[in-house]
Specification:
Blueprint (H helix, E strand, L loop, with lengths): L7 H8 L6 H7 L9 H9 L6 H4 L12 H4 L19 H4 E3 L2 E5 L2 E4 L29 H10 L5 E4 L9 H12 L6 E5 L2 H4 L6 H9 L3 E7 L8 H8 L7 E7 L8 H13 L3 E6 L14 H14 L7 E4 L8 E2 L6
Parallel strand pairs: 3-4, 4-5, 5-6, 6-7, 7-8, 8-9
Antiparallel strand pairs: 1-2, 2-3, 9-10
Helix pairs in contact: 12-13
The structure holds pyridoxal-5'-phosphate and iron/sulfur cluster.
The site of pyridoxal-5'-phosphate has 9 residues, from strand 2 and strand 3.
Length: 337
């Protein structure tokens, strides 16, 4: 293991040195900036380009269709209006109970501690989410605690996006201890894209904190393509297999990025090299600005049929859609129309 790379200051400096200028991104990859139509720049103003340099190094230079580049490069098509593609496709604003608390599923709820992400994914269903008005402060903890205690069925807290692993270890620890102090909570889930885009974030202090917790910890990472998992990322994730932390991956099916059975299969095999199991394969949420990533139902059905025929069952992600108002994610195989 290349220990020195896991130092805390390394990931912090990476987080404060993101690429945010589309021209810089394209020139770094030796690509022409001619494709930056004014629409793309406007799209970047609405939802800013944000990408760690380490993630850019995983992209293939000279390839304008690189599957990692397409996930982050603002595109003029984002400005097109499409019927059915809306700002809040999952009705999250309505489901917000208290600052940062989104409780839709019986036994578990989302707690958003920060609006910041290390990377901006163009397909993100929270790209229009009004985070700033909705973040819990220390003084809100007492209310969150009483809310949990009033809901006897809650046994799991899910830290979700914005990305909880953009928090410093000390802030993270503060919230971890608060959650640990409630006996009915048995599980802590951390949904984060940071271990994939800045693997150094899995530093010693964080891993120790998670290892020592009384909570049963699940880390759900987010990778959409095998190229996101270079050897260094695999090594960073594989450290966790020596702990009791369960590591899963979720992906979103995206046109032009991972819309072939071979791509999904390669991703599953690559994840398993780090002992990470595929969890969900999400059909795109219909968020305004992401219609150009949407796939035809027949394409999805054929892809999933092929994936099922090829992969061992434990490497097949569950194909799901989230439907606003439903009490769980909806399994889809054979039912997409
Ligand atoms: C996805 C999601 C969860 C977690 O659901 P699991 O099926 O347990 O992964 C919880 N709350 C909301 C609002 C979600 O969207
Ligand atoms: S919440 Fe997740 S999907 Fe959305 S921009 Fe942040 S990292 Fe990307």
């Amino acid at each position: 293991m290349i220990n020195y790379l896991f130092r805390e200051q390394n990931w912090k400096s990476q987080l404060s040195d993101l690429i945010t200028d589309p021209y810089e991104l394209l020139t770094t990859l030796n690509l022409s900036t001619d494709q930056l139509l004014s629409g793309a720049l406007l799209a970047s103003e609405q939802f800013k380009l944000r990408v760690p340099r380490a993630f850019v190094r995983k992209m293939v230079p000279n390839d304008p269709f690189d599957p990692l580049l397409l996930q982050v490069l603002p595109h003029h098509l984002e400005l097109e209006d499409h019927i059915n593609f809306v700002a809040d496709p999952l009705g999250e604003e309505e489901a917000t109970q208290l600052p940062g608390v989104l409780h839709k599923y019986e036994s578990r709820f989302l707690l958003t501690l920060t609006g910041a992400c290390a990377i901006h994914c163009r397909y993100c269903f929270r790209r229009h989410f009004p985070y700033q008005d909705n973040l819990p402060k220390s003084k809100d903890w007492a209310h969150i605690k009483s809310y949990i205690e009033s809901q006897a069925k809650i046994n799991e807290v899910i830290l979700s996006g914005g990305d909880p692993l953009t928090l410093s270890n000390s802030k993270f620890k503060l919230w971890l201890e608060r959650i640990e102090s409630i006996p009915q909570i048995k599980m802590l889930r951390i949904h984060s894209r940071v271990p994939v885009v800045i693997p150094e974030r899995l530093d010693h202090e964080l891993i120790t904190m998670l290892k020592q917790s009384r909570l049963n910890i699940v880390l759900v990472i987010h990778a959409n393509h095998a190229n996101e998992l270079d050897d260094f990322t695999i090594a960073a994730l594989a450290q966790l297999s020596a702990t009791q932390i369960t590591v899963l991956n979720q992906s979103v099916l995206l046109k032009g990025i991972n819309d072939s059975a071979a791509t999904i299969e390669a991703l599953s095999y690559r994840l398993f090299e780090a002992k990470v199991l595929p969890y969900y394969l999400h059909v795109l949420d219909k968020v305004k600005g992401a219609a150009h990533f949407d796939l035809e139902p027949q394409v999805i059905n054929q892809l999933y049929t092929d994936v099922l025929a090829t992969l061992p069952g434990y490497l097949v992600p569950k194909l799901v859609r989230e439907i606003a108002g439903e009490k769980n994610k909806t399994p889809l195989y054979g039912e997409i129309h």
